[in-house]
Amino acid sequence: MHALAKPLLLWVFAAGLACRGQASAPQQQRDLDVVPDQPPAQTAPQIPRSYALVVGISKYKNLPAKAQLKYPDRDAADMYSTLISEKAGQFPAEGVHELINEQATLANLKQELETWLPAVTGPNDRVFIYFAGHGFISGGKAYLAPYDVDPAKIGATAFPMDELGQVIGNRIHGKWKVLLTDACHSGAITPEDDTAQVNKSLLDLNSSMFSLTASRDREQSFESSQWGGGHGIFTYYVIQGLQGEADTSGDGVVTADELAEYVHTNVRLATHMLQNPTSDRGSFDPNMVLAFNPGSGVTKNCSGADCAGKLRYGTFVIETNMDDVEVWLDGKSLGVFKKGVPQRFPGLTPGPHIVKGAHQGYEPDGPREEQVYPGQDTAVAVRILIAQRRNHAAQEIFDRGLDRYTRGFAANYQVAANDFEQALGIDPAYSQAALYLGRTYHALYEEDKAKDALKKAIEIDPAYLEARLSYAAVLLDTGELDEAIRQLDSVAKQDPGNGMAWYLESQAFVRKGSYAQGVDSGNQAVKLTPANAEAHLWLGEALRRNGQCDLATSQYESYLSLSNFNSALAGKLNYYVLGSLFGAGTMKRASQQDIWRELRAQAYEGICDCDWMHKRYDEASMQCHKALALVPQDLFANYRLGIVFTEQYNAIGGQALLQEARQYFDAVIAINPDTDEAQRSRKYVAQIDSVLSQARR
Fold it and tell me: What is the dihedral of CA 63, 67, 69, 73, to 10 degrees?
C-alpha cells in the first residue's frame, strides 16, 4: 500500500427524491421533494490507507412506484469496481463497504458512518463515501433517505445531513476532504442559502477540502440509459473521470482540478446546460490526487484547467451483432451488450482508443483502435463472426490430456500438463487448453505456472468466465486476495447468478478479516447455489467471526451434510472436480483426500468454537474431537480443547481436566511453536504446572 503526502477524504453523494431529470430520452428524475415539516513519466503517487462506504438505493420500501429510481444501485456497483481497480481508486477491497437497496437501512447507514469509519480511519487516511438515492427536505432541514425511510416521519427515519457533516468533520479522520454531491440541493449540505457558512459549520477543517456538486441550487440531476447503459449523469462522468478520462495532463494522475473540469464540462454538454456542476475553487489544493491510472496517460496538446475546453470530448456509440458480447474500452469492461441495442459512452478524450469485443467460443473482435473526434458521435460496430476452430491434432492431444487429468493424482497430472502444453503449442488460441493447463499446474502446486496459463486463457478469450473463476481460485490459494476479488467482481458483474463467484468472494473477505462483507457474499452464494457445500462452509466462517454463532452453526451443519460422502472418493478426485462438489480456492499442499478432511475438520472446529463461546463445554469438546479425528495435527482444534478443559476445571475442579488441557497445549506447541496460540499455550502450561505442583504438596 502506498501513502499520499496528504490523505484524502472523498465524500460523494447522489441524492434527491425524483431528482434525476430527462435529457432528450425517457429518464427517471431525482427531484428534491419538500415534505411539510505521449505522456510524461508516470511516477506512482503515494496512496494512503483507504476506506470507502458505497451506498446505492433504487428501490425504497415505503415509497410509491413513481418514486422508485432506476440506476442508483448500478451507480454504486460500478463505483465499487472503480474504487477497487488498480487503474483507478486503488482501494483495498476489504476497505470498501457496500449498502445496496434493502441493505441500506437507517440502522446500517448509521453503523457504517458513526461506528465503522470513525473506528478504522486515522489522520493520514483517505475515505470515500458515496450515496446514490433519494433526499428530502423537512422542516427546513435536509436528509438522506435510507431504504426504510417513511415520508410521513422524515425526522425519525432519515439521516440528517447536518448530523452527517458533524460525523464526517469531527469523527471520521483524514486531512484531505473531498465533497462530491450529486443532488438537487447541491452546493450545501442543508438547503440554507449561506453555503459558505454551512460548510464552515459542518466541516470546519484545518486542511484542504474539495467540494464538487452535481448541479446548482434547485436544478435537476439526471439519470438515463444513454450514459454507459444506465447511470446518473454526474456519477457516470465521475467514474469515467476517475478511470482516466479526466487525466488531461496525461501523467496518469487524476487531480481534483482535472476531475472538476472534466465533470463540469461534460455534464453541462450532456444536459444542454440544464445541469451545471459547481465546485468551490478557493478551498482545495487543485493538485490533490483522486486516482492513479498507470498506463492510461494520453499525450495531449494542452494541460491544466484550460485543457478540458480545448479537448471537446467525443462519444462512442457501440453496437454488437450478437447477444452477450462483453466489450472493453481501453482495457476496462463496459459490460455485456445485447444485439442491436446501441449504448453511448460520451466524455472520451479525442484521439485513439482501444476497443475489443468477445463472446465465449468465438474469435474476438479486436483489440483495435477507434478514433474519438472532438464534439462528435462515432459509431463503433463490434462484430463477432468467426467461431473458434480447433486444430484437429491439438484437439486430439487435449482430449488425451483431459482423460489423464480427470483420473487425478500427481502422476496423471504430470502427463496431462505435457499434453495441454503440446495442444497449446500447436494451437496458441486454444483457450480451453490454457485453462486446463492452469488447473493442472495448480494441482501440482506450481502456482506461478498455473497463473501464467490462466492469464493466457483470459487473454485468448476475455469472456471466458470459467477461466477467471479458476484464476481467482489460484490467487486465493497464493494469498493474492485483492486481485482475486477484482476477478470475482468482474465475473459477478457479467454473471450475477454465478454462485461460485460469490462463495469465493466470501472466502476472500473472511481471509482479509472483512467478515460483514463475507456474510453478504456468502448469503448470496447460498441463495444461488444451496447445494454447494463450501458456500455454506464459508458463510459459516463469516458468520462466526462476525459474532453470529447461532446462524453459523446451521451453516456448518449444512456443509457437513452436503459433503458427507465416502472419504475414499476424495482421493480419486482431481482438485477441480473436487471443486465442483465443494467449490475451489482452498488448495493446500495435501492430497485431495486431505483437502476433504481439512474442510470437514474446519466445520467441526467452527461448531466447537461456537459451543465454547456459549459455554457448552461438553458439546464443544465433542465437536473438536471430531475435527481431530480427521486432522490430528490441527492446531486450532487442539488449542480450543485445551481452553475447554481449562474452563471446565475452573467451573468444577478436578486435576484430570488440567492434565487433559496440558496435553492439548503441548500439542499446539509441537505443531507450530511460532504461532500466537503456541505462545499463549506456553503460558497456560506454566500456570497448569504451578497449580499441579501446589496440589502435590
Answer: -20
Q: How many Å apart are CA 572 and CA 399, to the nearest integer?
A: 19
Per residue in 72-83, pLDDT tens?
Answer: 899 999 989 999
Q: Which CATH class is domain 389-462?
A: mainly alpha
User: What span, in angstroms and rounded, lies between the C-alpha atoms of 305 and 311?
Assistant: 11
Farthest-apart Cα atoms in the chain, separation? 95
Instruction: Centre a 10 Å sphere on the Cβ of residue 163 and count the other Cβ atoms it contains.
Output: 17
Residue among 351, 353, 370, 371 at smallest CA distance from 307: 351
Give the whole-angstrom CA distance, residue 249 versus residue 40: 8
**Side chain identity, residue 427:** D
User: What amino acid is encoded at 167 in this protein?
Assistant: V
Cis peptide before 352 (omega within 30 of 0): no
- Burial, 518: exposed, middle or buried (Cβ in 10 Å; 0-12, 13-18, 19+)? buried
One fold for 8-306 and 389-462: no
How far is the C-alpha of 537 from the C-alpha of 298, rounded, in Å? Answer: 47
Count the residues in the chain.
697
d(C-alpha 388, C-alpha 429), whole Å: 8
Cell 486446463 belongs to residue: 436
Q: Burial of 478 by CB count in 10 Å (0-12 exposed, 13-18 middle, 19+ buried)?
A: middle
Superfamily of domain 312-382: Immunoglobulins (2.60.40.10)
- 162-170: list long-range contacts, CB under 8 Å, 24+ apart: 162/189, 162/190, 162/202, 164/113, 164/189, 165/189, 165/201, 165/202, 165/203, 166/202, 167/113, 167/114, 167/118, 168/9, 168/11, 168/113, 168/129, 168/202, 168/203, 169/202, 169/203, 169/204, 169/205
User: What does CATH list as the number for 8-306?
Assistant: 3.40.50.1460
In angstroms, the CA 566 to CA 166 distance is 59
Q: What is the pLDDT of residues 174-231, one digit of tens each?
A: 877 676 766 543 333 333 333 333 334 333 433 446 767 767 666 667 877 877 888 8
Q: Where are the alpha helices (DSSP H) in 111-227?
A: 117-120, 154-157, 161-170, 195-202
CA dist., res. 223 & res. 30, Å (int): 8
Q: What's the DSSP call for residue 339?
A: B
Domain boundaries, the chain: 8-306, 312-382, 389-462, 592-696
Of the ranges 39-53, 210-224, 442-456, the best mean pLDDT one = 442-456
Cα–Cα distance for residue pair 245/238, rounded to 1 Å:
10
- Is residue 86 within a helix (H) or strand (E), and if so which, with residue range? none
Packing angle, helices 465-477 and 481-494, rounded to 10: 160
CATH number corresponding to 592-696:
1.25.40.10
pTM listed for this prediction: 0.77
Which residue, among 227, 214, 399, has the nearest Cα to 313 in the 3D structure? 227
